[in-house]
Structure formats: C-alpha cells, structure tokens
C-alpha cells in the first residue's frame, strides 16, 4: 500500500462512511430542564443532533442503547454525580468525548473530572462563547483522535504503515538502548521540544529531564534495566531547546511518560535490551489544573485570595507566631454605603469600585501582608510579624488616608469609606477563627458608631456583641412564640377632660430577661430585616384592639402607633396599611401613624409620596419627637402631616422658671401650618400648666398614666385618669 506524501491519510474535517457524511450526535445531561432546552439552540450547527437526560440512571440507560460523539455532562445530578458516568464509559471502553460542566467550587471536582476521562471542564457560570468554543475544540480533537484510530486499524498490516502511525503520532515515541541513550525518536520531538532527532540520537535521555525530576526518573530507569519493574507511568518535565524558543515560551514541557522495558529472549533466557517510551504533552491539562486551583483559592473579581486561602495563611501565621512568641494582627474591612453604588449606578460600576478599592488597599500594605476578599464588600487583612499593636493602627490610618481621594466612576466621582475592625494575637485570641471573629465584632462597632474609622477589639465589646447576638437569636421566632404584647398610653384632652387617643407601644416579654422595651430590640430587628414582620403584627393588633373599643362604644377614640423608617422602603407599604385598616373596619381618620424626622431626610421624594398617599386615604400622619432632628419647614411643606409631637426632652425643661423657646417655636409652627399638637413625656403639673398656656391641649405622659395592657387602658376610657379630675 502506497500513501502519497502530498495527501493526508485521513480527512478530519468530517466523519463519513462510504462517502456519506454522518451526523454529529450530542447528549446533554443536566437536571436543569431550561438549560437542556437552551443548549441545543446555543450549539446548533448543521449536522448536529441533540438528545437530553436529567439524571445518571437515565443517562446510562440511554448509553446502553445509543452512542454519541459528545456528552455535555453536569457534575451534580439528582441521583449522583457525573463521575459515575465517566466511570461507566471507561469500564465499557466507550469512545464518547465528555465536557464536564459544574458549579462546584472544590478543586477536587475539576481535577477528578479531568483525571476520570473528561476532555474538558467548564465552570458555571459560563459565557455562551466559552461553551461554544469548548464544544468545537473537543469535537475537532475527537475527530482527530478517531482519525488516528482509523489510521491505526488501516496501517496495522504493514510495517511501513506502522512506522507512519508512529511518526505521525501526536506523542513523542522513542526507544532507549540498555545504557539509556536514544536509539529511535519520532519527528514529534522536534515540534514539542525543539530538538532535531539527529541531535538526540545516541545521547542520554537524562539530558532532557529537568534537574528536579532527575533522581526520580533515574531510579525508574534503573529498575527497568535490573528487571525489577514491568514499566512505569509518571509525570515529569522535559527540557526544551532554548535556541528554538520564542519570547515568553516556557523552557520545559510537562509530559505523561509511559515506559515499558524491552526484552530479548535467547538461549540464556530473557535479557533487557532497552526501553520503549511514549511521552504525551499534558501541559494544557496542567495549566487547566493550575487555573482551577487559582480559582479555588482566589476571588475572580479582584484576583485577591479568598476566604479559604486567607484562613490557611492566617493559621500558618498563628502557628509561626506561637513558635516565635510573636505578634500579628487581623483586620476586618467593610465598605460603607456600598449598596448605594449598586442600587444607584448598577452592579458593573460596583464591581469596578471593588477592583479599584482592592488596588488601593493593597498599596497601603507591607510586603508579606495578605489582603483577601471574603465576598460582597468585605475584605480581610493579615499583618504578620508586627512589633506592637500600634503598628496595626498605623496601617489602618494609611488605609483611611488612601481612600480619601474619590474614585472615578462612569457616572461621576464616588467617595468610598470603610469601617475597620482590628484584633491582635495573642491578646484578642489564639486561633484563626477567634481573631477573625473578634475583628468582625470590632468592625460592626465602627459601623454602628458612624462608620469611616477603625477600632481595636476589647473584651467589653465582645460581651456586648454576645449579648446582641443572643438577642438577635431570641428575636427570631418571638412572634411565633407570642412573646410580643401591646401596651397603651392615653392621650388626654384637657379641654374635653377625657381620653381622646391611645398610643400603641410594643413590649417584648422575653422568657428569661423579662419585659424588654423597643429601644433595645427594634434596632436589632431593623438591622436583621425582621422589622417589617413585627410592624405588620403591631398594625394588626392595634387595629384589632381599636375595633373592640369601638364596638364597646368608644367610637371617637384615635389610635396612634410608630412605624420604622425601614417600613417605608417597601413599595407596597401603603396598600398593606390600607388593607389592614379595611379588614378591621377602622375609619382611616381614627388611625395615626407616627414617623421620624430622620426618615424624611433619607429619601425625601419616595417617603413624601407614601405620606401623601396615606393622607389622601384619610389616615393621620404625625411627626414623632419633633424638634430633635432637622425640623426644616421645607419638609413640613413636602410631607402633608397633620400632627406634631413635642419631644419629651423639651417638655422636661419646662419644670424650671424659664419657658424653652424651642417649645414656643414648635407651638407657633403647629398653629401656622394648622397642625394638631401633642406633648409627650408630661410628668409634672407645672409642665401641664405651661403647655396649656402655650396652646397645647393634648398631652400624654406619666402625670396622667403609665403605659398599660389593654384591660387597664380600657378603664381609662370609662373613668379618665385622676389627673383630669
């Protein structure tokens, strides 16, 4: 059989039989039905046919009956993982190519898939172009491999064809004589290592082995020569011809070397005559493993170490500090107001800010320090081998100074600040977990104290944090355990000498700590997002109680209750309030919702729109603690409230000989805007007299009655508090 030199032996452009092009069959294995429907459209090309499966068992049943060119295999499936399919394919000597697709973060999943026989590995989430390119590459490579196998079958009968197969192999095929010198090399060595065959023939194989691998390989070759080995399969690095390298090319190639001893039988028995070797280039696989390893231990957005790598380095640093009796510090850094960037400019701008912020943080650190991103807008810093705790303070100040310059975003400049918590070994903990946790505790204290600063951890702070965490844990489920209760404090009219309203006040009957006031647990509920559910409960209970009092004949009574500023963040807040009012048949004018001045400052337009909607529906809206915040007349024009409540701090000062000018101003504002006025915190008869002289008729406070449960509050409706007698 003669093979023309100018024509390829096998056409790898398409698989064909008897001149007829065969379709390319692709099996999609994924438990996501939407993804199984989408991929055929994304990967559609002429001649491609697609089947789909959603589980391991279903896949194996289909493979029993059909064969495929390519399997797109999800790693995690309902009844197992993709490795089971790879194992089945290997056991049955199947030829299907496999691309493993996985969202697993563990590096073992990727490396296990590649070593299990997968041709490629794609990590979720992926771009469309990435999966298209992976499929095209694998199909092309599979076609080449099938061509190679076809050549092997067609050339097996002829020595010349055997030589053709060897010399056109994508692997380096060679033989060594008994002294370990090359006796044959196929042409692939020139392309892979840059050496001509003539340069290497009769030269020792060990000249190509990198120094780090020489002792190991020399021992394996010696074992084969001594007859103590039937062969070996190892990974090693082979040196490339430095004179044939282009700029930037690696000086070595990683190969999988399969070596088999060659023996000759004569009258004296078998004797070794050399070694047959096949070296396959696995540089791409090794690079893929390195990329997967990097991704497993680094944040893909900022390229910084991630939580896993940071913990490893911190544990190592702690162990070294223990041996040397040294000191180290851990910083927990949280970006202030980062959610504002994402909400205002979009997540792309937020990602840009995080990358730029990571660069600035890194620029403030020493060589050997570690900056890591834990996720979101949280970073950690490891400062090993510091001389004293004050060194960490120096770096913290450098961080704050580095962020003083605004960041340039596409929509304009943004001034970013951070809250930094610091813990020091061994003072604040002896383990990586304790040091990180305590730095986190200190950071949250900075957050609650105004942000844009740093703080060291201390034991008192930890006790407060533990108490707060315990309170947060107990708060979850407090509604289901029916631990909340409403108390009521009367609002009395001096002119009418009766109770005209009730303010609903929330109390938490804690099973261990007793009754807890809202000032203690409401901030925790707001921070954890539980405040919305609690506010709905308060609204339901207050309206239900008002309905009962109205059914008892107190039809003129008004109910007031406080709303959290976070309640106004919900777009359906107004509809929800009106629905509850309607459910209990409450005339809207008899329910008054109290808001704070600070809430009006946070999002004026959005909050004002909700207040206008509530007022348009007939509900009352009062500004609680008026005068303690901004007290801007412009806000009274934007927010159509109907009532002002004078804060108790101003009422308290009325017990002296001088009238507080702020109260005079507030009463004047109320008259000027035609607003109802209520004074809270009234405790003395002198305060009553002064307030009445200023034109304030409605009051509440201990002078009239302490907050009480509904049963006692109902008695005030029948018999007014004795202070009105």
Description of the molecule:
This is EAL domain-containing protein. Residues 326-459 form the GGDEF domain. Residues 158-228 form the PAS domain. Pfam families: EAL, GGDEF, PAS_4, Response_reg. There is one protein chain. With 725 residues, this protein is α/β, with parallel strands linked by helices. The chain folds into 4 domains: 16-155, Response regulator (Rossmann fold); 169-287, PAS domain (Beta-Lactamase, 2-Layer Sandwich); 300-457, Alpha-Beta Plaits, CATH 3.30.70; 531-724, Alpha-Beta Barrel (TIM Barrel), CATH 3.20.20. Helix content is 43%, strand content 24%. The protein has an 8-stranded mixed beta barrel with strand order 22-23-25-26-27-28-29-30, surrounded by 4 helices. Helix 4 (107-115) links the parallel strand 8 (97-102) and strand 9 (120-123). Helix 4 (107-115) runs antiparallel to helix 10 (283-297), helix 5 runs antiparallel to helix 6 and helix 12 runs antiparallel to helix 13 (347-363). The longest helix has 28 residues, at 128-155. The protein starts with 15 loop residues before the first strand and ends in a 7-residue tail after the last helix. Residues 1-14 have low confidence and may be disordered.
